[in-house]
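Bench log. Compound arrived from synthesis this morning; before running ITC I wanted a structural hypothesis for how alpha-D-glucopyranose sits in the protein. Inputs:
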Amino acid sequence: MNSERREAIDEMIVKMRAGRMSRRAFVERAAVLGLSASFVGTLLDACGSGGSGGPTVVAWESENEATGTYQDLVNKFNQSQKDVQVHWTNGPSDTGQLLTKFSTMLRARSNSIDIMSMDIIWPAQFGASGWTFPIDGKWPASERQNYLPGPVAGCTYNGKIWAAPFRTDAGLIYYRTDLVPTPPNTWDDLTNSAQQALSSGAVKYGYVWQGAQYEGLVCDFVEVVYGYGGSILDPNNPKTVTTTSPQTVQGLTQMVSWVGGISPQAVTTYKEEDARTTFQNGDAAFMRNWPYAYAHGQNASESKIVGKFDVHTMLYGGSNTTGHSSLGGWQLGINAFSSKTDAAWQFVHYMMQEPAQKEAAIKASLTVTLQSIYDDADVLKANPFFAKLKPVFQTAQPRPVTPKYPDVTLAIQQQVHNALLKQAAPADAMSALATQLQGIVS
Ligand code: GLC
């Protein structure tokens, strides 16, 4: 820590102890200095202000949110009342890194973070481990029915709701309207169209997506595979592995053909943010990404393609006629070891209400879960593509559903990445994956 920051903190402590600074001002100042929520809690305790009297300070760490919308929502909440003050920390954009951080905290039964933004693939694991506080008792069924049923189901495990489904997510195909005359329907259409755009010299890359060895790759992979009618585990019997089916191998073969062709070799290191910055810099004709990339792409202060792109639903191939987005999304879970459950719920509940849901939809193009948002005129004006999303959510499919998902995803990441690097032929990578998965799920 630099000496200026240390002096600023010392000054805050002196003022706080002397009663010349309110808890709220303290928390706000700490946010400006970029102090972590747990450090602020320790400082407040040291000032003798950790107990009753002042507002309850609740720490929230989210998935990465780079438009400033989460900070704005926190500020509005903090200004709306005096009893609870939320301190927000922006998390990493790699979901795996956030999971490592939270699991380390939870295994130590720590409550340094009261509210955790949770990826849709975590609730079963968190529920089974007793890591979050079930919210059934706090969230009336009469309210719950107003939200998209899929994400609510995704938060439910063993009959209890382990987190509040703040927003859902579904993969989309972004394309440049000035370069692509007719958006593609099939993976072959996309390949040809991207090749044409590339050959015309208008862009550096035809198609960018998420090819790094991490969770995002699994989402991209299942979308191509589902589009060809393939699967990873048999949907009717999740103990049967199906990765050696011709359709699954065909999907992977298609992806491998893109690397070093319509996609740069470096796509094997790309995560969402790499694809997004490349696309909004005007360097690619197509991109696979989540809805959040839309608001960034339409923001003139960061994007070179404002008004020059649109989104299309997920593609298909082989004898299939429907594409399937991979289902993602983020929930707000309350740390089971938190001593501030009621205060945390107050904020979580605020985030689920219409004003917060609407602001997240308009400013950050987040596909929130309150159903009425998809018919809201202001939302549709800001993000016209929300009108196309109902069928996308209806046909979206989850990543393999199994309590062993943490191991399953690592195996998929490893084998698919091997194939993308051409270290294994697609069919061989899929047999190796079958062997690994069989050992995990049976
Ligand atoms: C998005 C999705 C999440 C997924 C992640 C992968 O954040 O919402 O469900 O796991 O991308 O990178």
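What the model suggests: The chain is about 45% helix and 15% strand. The mean pLDDT is 94.
ITC booked for Thursday regardless.
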